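Form 12-C: Joint structure prediction
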Amino acid sequence: MTELLAGVVVALAALALVLEPLVMGRPRFKAAGGWSPDDGDIDFTDVEESESPKIQALLALKEIEFDRETGKLSDEDYSTMKATYQRAALLAMEQEETEGHGLAV
Amino acid sequence: MTVLGELSLWLALLLAAWGTFVGALGARSRNPDLLASARRAPYALLLVISVASLCLLVALLRHDFNVQYVYQYSSRNLPTPYLISAFYGGQAGSLLFWALVLCAFSAAAQWLTPRRYNHLMPYVAAVTSMVTLFFVVVSLFAANPFERLQFTPPDGAGLNPQLQNPGMVFHPPLLFFGYVGITIPFAFAVAALLTNRLDTGWLHAIRKWTIVSWVFLSAGITLGMWWAYVELGWGGYWAWDPVENASLMPWLTMTAFLHSVMIQEKRGMLKKWNMILIMLSFVLCIFGTFITRSGIVSSVHSFAQSSVGDYFLVFLILLVAGLTALVWTRMPRLEAEAKLESMVSREATFLFNNLLLVGMAFTVLWGTMFPVVSEMFRGVRVTVGPPFFNQVNVPIGLALLALTGVGPLIAWRKASPANLKRQFVAPLATGGGAALVAALLGVRHAYALLTVALSAFVAATILQEFLKGTAARHRLHNENYAVALARLVARNRRRYGGYIVHAAVVIYFVAFIGDVYKTEREVTLKPGETASLRSPFGHEYTFTHVGISQYDQLNRFVFAASLEVSKSGRRDGVMTSEMRQYLDSMGQPTFQPSTEPAIRSGLLEDLYIVFAGSPEGTEEAVYRFTISPLVWWLWFGGVLLVVGGVVTLWPSSGPSRASVRRALEGYQTRMVDEEPMAGVR
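Section 2 - Result
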């Protein structure tokens, strides 16, 4: 009998958890909707941010600078690649200024 | 407690079905109430499956032998830690445990995933609920842990003696965490396909989950090797047994994914390949469970043959068919954004590494399933053993080891010959030097020499990466060397944590060399008689049989054979190996006697002694002596691998807004000072 009662309590609790949004209309437990830590990472679901030419170029510039410093890229290759990515970054920044919407980084 | 347990399982069935259908329906109709309800299903499932698990644990701890599972896998005199591990020691309990871990991972995924991925989460909930639904169905209809007997036996049959080992308390849960953990990246992959959001977003969402499951799988496999070594008494740690292979296959494909995903993140390439790899990893987990549970291939580790296999087979077929259709319809959206610029680039080495890893996975799959395939086509069950697996996989493994060293030395996109030369000189010289030293020390085995050379090459690569990276930070940011090293690792945790894992892999390979030089001898000794065995390191062990003692211990009767050990003429203590006869609470034998080897572990070699038996009524003892070089390093490599994994997992290892802001500030300052470039105003 005790087990059955405990079973009923568990069932009610579980069903209340999943049915509450349908019955009450709006979720009351914030946790169930997902905890959202602001980890400060680039939002890669936001194509406007993650695929922004400015961010792509800046990340590539960081990468090739480190590769040059650790000897993986020659000075010649580095200069060529740096010029390409700097140009891309400057053009992107210029375009953002013209359009008046800089991405918040 | 079985009424509550069974009721909880039925509730879980209902909730898992609800989560599956409401998740899919809510995501399609974009109804926020349905979406919220679906995302709560994993929490509700965690609640009810926890209650069911608690009921089984209580039944085990209370010795409720009327419950068939409790009767089959425990006894009154079973020590408490093993009463708890009996929860996952048998078929039905382990399936419930699987469901419990899956619910915990699913709830954690819903709880911990940042809000920006909300568009994927209802589908993730639907997929994890669907997988839970499968395990609950199997638990209820094929392997119900709450099934009762017609009568109540006075004592249980007891837990298999080989499972009464500390390694078996921790090995299955770790392996399950690894297997189950793959469900989360798999769920995100399906969610990305269903929503057509195939940008790199989902890859970033699963990064931590992928590493978590990989680290657990690696730790579980290593702990399984340790258990086999200390418990099974054959002096080895890996026998290419189907159950071992079942855990290795998803590990190989996950390792491939962890590398190839970087190419997609950085270059937008290999989208189809990555999608297939993550699906393959999940399918191989289910397949591994199928071969372990169905009894279609014989293994020392597998569970008793049961109808569970039929359920797994149907699930596998549906899974493969569904996933193939889903990927096929999304193919146009999975086109690469860039092309491979050069075969001498980091991307190319990752590609080769992937081909080798997946090739090895299929080799292992082929060897594992060969008995079934041969029986199907030729009517004869032909088993392939370790020689086949070693012949094929050792060269592949060595090629992978070489790529572990080559990859980090080559730049992304393209590498010039001059830089390649500069990068490779020191590691190649180290590798060559190490091989020379090994040859001078008497190493003649070709694979052993090659492993020494490649291990030294990779170790030098890793060291060079740390040194050059630290020096680069020192120059670029004017930091002292200690700060530069700390920040180098802290700000590139994925890369440098990965290098620590590479170092662990090198240590594994060094330990594998020891297997080539393993020495064994089997002798029968009377008290006072001696036998000797020469170590590959040159010294000689002498063993003098002291005698056999017999005594009761916990839930067993022990025959202990003792030896005095001398190393190069110097006394080196007494070692005792046991033969154990496990008994029930009425003193009746429960299982066949099992051996407990005596192991003395050292940095150079392990001395491994097995008492294999004694002619009745005599003090004679049959011994098997084994000297296993370098085995200790395998366990050390396992620990280092977990450390590397934790470094990689440490929060916020992705490109952050702050890092881009710093780069932006740096370039803005520099660009003001520099000459204007062509094409830019």
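Section 3 - Comments
Chain B touches chain A through 78 residues (CB under 8 Å). Residues 470 and 482 of chain B are 8 Å apart (CA to CA).
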